[in-house]
């Protein structure tokens, strides 16, 4: 793997051999840093996924959080999950040279040959009005993936980059491709808004135009995945009409 890209100006780097969770570390660090910083860990002892699921974090895979201090309100801040997904896809394509192998699953997973290779967990907090800090946590199955039996029934199977493509990338090398890619999408979001990200995300969306199931709590709705709207919500066409779903787990 020899993909060179400039590290983004003004962005810090922190590497920890082991940590409970890079998102938890970002939360602890937030009051003490003024600018963005990538926190990378060799392993996590309490990695967390969306909806409070554990995220198995043995050495060799990628566990990182970008801690940042966004200026906008919560709605715009949340759109960074799309910037992160697009950056992840670009990083994967850069290290593998396989543009057609990767797809984006709403709201923020990256699929490789139809299996989940990466997940994103956004967390925010801070005192006062607005969003004090944003932690964009990213987990990538670089060399290994959990057993299918370890994930929710019906979820897409986890896969690793190594097993699917034969490409072996070290976590720091992957970070050095991902961080510049994220910085580019961050700049587009800040200067041009969500529209270019939305268009690019839709160009790589998994199961667009197909029947999917969206589960929110105990409510499961089936319909055609029409698009995402200008807020990033999933637009699901049902016999009664199209509904906007701001948050859900999607099953194929
Ligand atoms: O459920 C998901 O798909 C999101 C998984 C996010 C995992 C990453 S690993 C780095 C960061 N630290 C955590 O504890 N979680 C995120």
UniProtKB/TrEMBL annotation:
It comes from the Bacteria. Its EC number is 6.3.4.15. It holds the Pfam family BPL_C. Residues 6-190 form the BPL/LPL catalytic domain. Keywords: Biotin, Ligase. It catalyses: biotin + L-lysyl-[protein] + ATP = N(6)-biotinyl-L-lysyl-[protein] + AMP + diphosphate + H(+). Signal peptide: none annotated. Gene3D superfamilies: Bira Bifunctional Protein, Domain 2. GO terms for cellular component: cytoplasm. InterPro entries: aa-tRNA-synth_II/BPL/LPL, Biotin_CoA_COase_ligase, BPL_C, BPL_LPL_catalytic. GO terms for molecular function: biotin--[biotin carboxyl-carrier protein] ligase activity. PROSITE patterns: BPL_LPL_CATALYTIC (PS51733). This is biotin--[biotin carboxyl-carrier protein] ligase. It comes from Paragemmobacter aquarius.
């Amino acid at each position: 793997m020899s993909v060179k890209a400039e590290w983004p100006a003004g962005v810090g780097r922190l590497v920890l051999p082991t940590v409970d969770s890079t998102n938890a570390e970002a939360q602890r660090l937030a009051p003490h840093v003024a600018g963005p910083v990538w926190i990378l860990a060799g392993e996590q002892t309490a990695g967390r996924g969306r909806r409070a699921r554990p995220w198995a974090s043995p050495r060799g895979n990628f566990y990182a959080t970008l801690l940042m201090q966004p200026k906008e309100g919560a709605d715009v801040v949340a759109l960074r999950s799309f910037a992160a997904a697009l950056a992840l896809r670009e990083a994967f394509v850069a290290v593998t040279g396989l543009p057609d192998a990767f797809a984006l699953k709403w709201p923020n997973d990256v699929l490789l040959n139809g299996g989940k290779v990466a997940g994103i967990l956004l967390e925010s907090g801070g005192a006062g009005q607005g969003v004090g800090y944003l932690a964009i946590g990213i987990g990538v199955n670089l060399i290994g993936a959990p057993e299918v039996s370890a994930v929710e029934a019906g979820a897409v199977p986890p896969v690793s980059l190594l097993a699917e493509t034969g490409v072996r990338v070290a976590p720091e090398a992957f970070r050095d491709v991902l961080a510049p890619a994220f910085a580019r999408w961050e700049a587009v979001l800040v200067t041009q808004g969500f529209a270019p990200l939305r268009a690019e995300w839709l160009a790589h969306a998994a199961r667009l135009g197909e029947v999917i199931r969206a589960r929110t709590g105990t409510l499961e709705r089936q319909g055609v995945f029409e698009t995402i709207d200008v807020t990033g919500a999933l637009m699901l066409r049902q016999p009664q009409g199209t509904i906007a779903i701001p948050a859900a787990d999607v099953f194929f």
